Amino acid sequence: MLRVLIDRAGGVGITHCEAISRALEPLLDEHDPISGPYVLEVSSAGLERPLKRPEDFARMLGRDVLVRLYTARQGEREFVGKLVSLDGDALTLEGHPPFSMKTVALARLYIQW
User: Fold this and answer.
1) How far apart are CA 101 and CA 6, in angstroms?
2) Dihedral angle computed from the Cα positions of residues 104, 106, 107 and 108, in that order, rounded to the nearest 10 degrees
3) Under a CB-based contact definition with an 8 Å cutoff, are residues 39 and 3 in contact?
4) Which residues contact 113 (CB under 8 A, 6 or more apart)?
5) In a 3-state reduction of DSSP, which class is residue 7?
6) Which of the residues 7, 20, 40, 51 has an alpha carbon 20 to 30 A from that of 74?
7) Could you tell me the pTM of the whole model?
8) Complete DSSP assignment for 54-100
9) What are residue 42's DSSP bridge partners?
10) Percent of the chain whose predicted confidence (pLDDT) is above 70
């Protein structure tokens, strides 16, 4: 399986995945980087993908975010709230004291299903 994850401002739709797949197929056929049969999968990283880079956090300002800590703070390891800021090493959710990024195991957009 060759999996290609794509992202773009404004989001990724099925037409974007299809266009990238159609562009990659002839290049992969020509250069044959993988010996033997394989399946090409082009997809979005998904709504709940982890936030890692400062620009990931900037896109989610004002949105609900889940933060999971390596160790519990006041008996809790998971926090959900509106993302207020990421300033240097300080991640701030509305209604919570700032989290040091060194203590954050995971941060991602929170989708309530």
Assistant:
1) 25
2) 180
3) no
4) none
5) coil
6) 51
7) 0.69
8) HHHHHHTTTSEEEEEEEEEETTEEEEEEEEEEEETTEEEETTS--EE
9) 4
10) 100
